[in-house]
Amino acid sequence: MMNNIADENKDNSIEDVLSGADVIYSSEQVAAVLDEMAMNINTRLAGTNPLLLCVMKGGIIFTAQLLTRLTCMPELDYIHVTRYQNQTAGNKLDWLVYPQTSIKDRTVLIIDDILDQGITLSAIVEYCKNQGAKEVVSAVLVHKKHDRYKSDVDCDYVGLEVEDRYVFGYGMDYKGKLRHLDAIYAVAE
Fold it and tell me: How many domains does the chain have?
């Protein structure tokens, strides 16, 4: 009985977060950015048959939505590298799943939800290069603006910029929940 009460309170706090959150980008704004990003990626990767690597879990919705707009004939795989483990602050990198498809001599398009400090993206780019990728291209839906960026790797395609706030929706989570939302929200300040 006690666990049910704790679970209900946990769910209520999630509901409170959502009801008090600010909509940063609507689903229409995100869709427009995806259209533009896909057009640019299609132009750059035309004729390459790229391997598209979805960074799990956060990149899943962005990847799915972008994939439906791509005409460059990508092959889909995923990689699961995480620093957050449903927490609000990142820790060491945990490599949970490596791609099943060979990266050697391929153009690889890494797709992730958010670029915060750049640590995860940098590690994945290095991994792809070490596996013999011919070219590594990256795309993120959201770039968080702050001065804590710790990587020398630049992202090739950035959809949207957000202030230094805790954001969720469109694949990004709040304590493991709210990824399913079709807009981007920020926790109320």
Answer: 1
